[in-house]
Amino acid sequence: MRSRTQLFAFLTFLLAAVLPVSAHVGSPDVFYEGSAGPYRLVVTLRVPQVIPGVAEIQIRCESGDVGAIRVVPLRLAGPGSNLPPTPDLAERSNDDPQFFTASLWLMESGALQVRVLVDGAQGRGELSVPVPASAQRTLPMEKPLAGLLLALMLFLAVGVVCIVGAIAREGNLEAGEIPDRSHQRRAYAVMLATAIFVAAVLYLGKAWWGSDATEFQRKVDFFKPPVAALQLVDGHRLEIRAQRTDIKSPAYIRLGEVLPDHGHLMHLFLLHVPELDRMWHLHPDPTKSGAFAVDLPELPAGHYKVFADVVDPRGYPWTLVGSIDLPQITGTPLAGDDSTWSGAPLQALAEDSTNSPLPDGGRIVWQRPAGNLRANVPLEFIFTVQDKDGKPAQDMQPYMGMAGHAEFVRSDLSVFAHLHPAGSVSMAALELAQAGLTNAAPSAPDEMMSMPMPPSDPLRPEVRFPYGFPQPGDYRIFVQIKRAGRVETGVFDAHAN
Ligand SMILES: [Cu+2]
Description:
Elements: H1 2-17, E1 30-36, E2 39-46, E3 53-61, E4 66-75, E5 88-89, E6 91-92, E7 99-106, E8 110-120, E9 123-133, H2 143-170, H3 181-222, E10 227-233, E11 237-243, E12 267-272, E13 278-282, E14 285-286, E15 292-295, E16 302-311, E17 317-326, E18 339-342, E19 355-357, E20 363-366, E21 379-386, E22 396-397, E23 405-410, E24 416-419, H4 427-435, H5 440-443, E25 462-467, E26 473-483, E27 486-496
Antiparallel strand pairs: 1-2, 2-3, 3-7, 4-5, 4-8, 6-7, 8-9, 10-11, 11-15, 12-13, 12-16, 13-18, 14-15, 16-17, 19-20, 20-21, 21-25, 22-26, 23-24, 23-26, 26-27
Helix pairs in contact: 1-2, 1-3, 2-3
The structure holds copper (II) ion.
């Protein structure tokens, strides 16, 4: 009986124990826009509350000629990545024939992918969405439940002792016989022995619980954003190391082994906090000692937060998080793909800002949908770029191989997401995922080209990001584009309900 209570408690604990996270900070859902052969799809994947657990997938097709969609999860790379199990059929919405949904069991944590197979009037198409599935935190058991379980356990424990005592005292009595002193003494002895036995079982149960809880916590800690240990060297050079002070096991992320992701091994975002009025997007290089380092540009003294994106060899994207107080730095001028922005601090918003002026008199305009923006709803963020005369800009170029890069930061820094026109997936993970497809070449989205297009080829003056706010709150959105050889950053403040 007691063990059943304990099992119940343990199952509850299991259910409550593990929440997922992805590379971004505080933004676990996956948003992806890409082509499955001839079909253009927008895929939203809600990573399950528990692992193993059920992922919810929504797929919107741009064209109306899709007949059926099948989905299947598998590992992103290594063993198992080439042997997909039988795919599940996605369900077509009754109200919208271009909208499909499916539920998928994710059985393990780590770098996974969901393969999407499309059949339709234009034949078959396939795409793959990288999914970082992992444990995020242990939820505390709810107090009322813990109290109820404790009360039940005490009731059962005391009950067992009393029942055994009653058996010892009265089990051998004839009908109508009254227990005498010797019966009573025997009952007390048996009850004492039973109480000791019950206490021992409870103690073992607690040890079992404790070891399981530790094991869970270890898994949870494994996927926490690693701490970026930051150090200022020679007065102007920022050194970044991955530090796992929170777990005793060996370092899971070796900075010497990370994969290049859209042209760089590390994308580092330096934010002046708490105002968020200055931002740098830098690309540190590996050092001989297994760290990363970057020469800082000119910046004022202050408190700075660092988010550094890297992708491990399995295709799992990590965001290192750290903070540092910096003195005023004279620094070296920005070069290459490095960029910066400074402007007004993020304040409590009366309304969302949709217009961000650029240094040359042009501007970036957010085509914000009317009405309130809701958290946990997939949205498409569309930004158009205008020149100084208010006309669509004609000088757009790819920035690190893509039409644009966006960073979504929540005012309290609990959310940081680095996005691209292909969505929230890491470009390096996407390349691994696409490599396993049979029709890899034609289905690879043009956004992930690692070779930049020739600068003479102007892009459309518009950039889109599929994304959804992971929780209500105030967000600052940095939109980065390249025009005529210059990187420009537009900044938009938004409130999600
Ligand atoms: Cu980027």
